[in-house]
Design goal:
The chain is mainly β. Helices cover about 0% and strands about 20% of the residues. It is built from no helices and five strands. The protein has strands spanning about 20-25, 30-40, 55, 110, 120. The strands form two sheets. A three-stranded antiparallel β-sheet has the order 1-2-3, with no helix packed on it. A hairpin with a 5-residue loop joins strand 4 (about 110) and strand 5. It is elongated and about 65 Å long. Belongs to the heparin-binding growth factors family.
């Protein structure tokens, strides 16, 4: 975290890379900058790094980091769940071979529509279609039909 409260990635270790980890009673962790703090200020006075209020690592709803001096220990965006690392967490899971009993992928049936678009129906669950909303989020398969625009995809070449 720099002196303006912005979180950034650094190639080398320095004093701005140090954070104090605090474990809270509900099982959450917070991370405060060891270097930067804010003094209590009067109304309209400009805040300067000093020795009173800590600057916390915080992430907004879109996943972007918030500036340190705008964060508090009690805000939900500053609370992080600790991850307990086990021996199996250190293995490279993406290299693991799928088991025979595991279904690795769903089979989809491609349907050519009259308007030259494609729709994809699940073989295991007939009547369930792949659909994407305008924002690109997946929609539930039982809530859509092949006549809706959200299920229309351009044909493969």
């Amino acid at each position: 975290m720099n002196k303006r409260g912005r979180l950034y990635a650094s190639e080398s270790y320095n004093a701005e890379c140090e954070f104090v980890e605090r474990i809270h009673e509900l099982g959450y962790n917070t991370y405060a900058s060891r270097l930067y703090r804010t003094a209590p200020s009067g109304r309209g006075a400009r805040r300067q790094p000093s020795a009173e209020r800590l600057w916390y690592v915080s992430v907004n709803g879109k996943g972007r980091p918030r500036r340190g001096f705008k964060t508090r220990r009690t805000q939900k965006s500053s609370l992080f769940l600790p991850r307990v690392l086990d021996r199996k967490d250190h293995e490279m899971t993406w290299l693991r071979e799928p088991r025979i009993e595991e279904e690795t992928e769903e089979k989809q049936r491609e349907i050519l529509l009259p308007n030259n678009y494609n729709a994809y129906e699940c073989d295991r669950h007939p009547g369930m279609f792949i659909a994407l909303s305008k924002n690109g989020k997946a929609k539930k398969g039982n809530r859509v039909s092949p006549t809706m625009k959200v299920t229309h995809f351009l044909p493969r070449l």
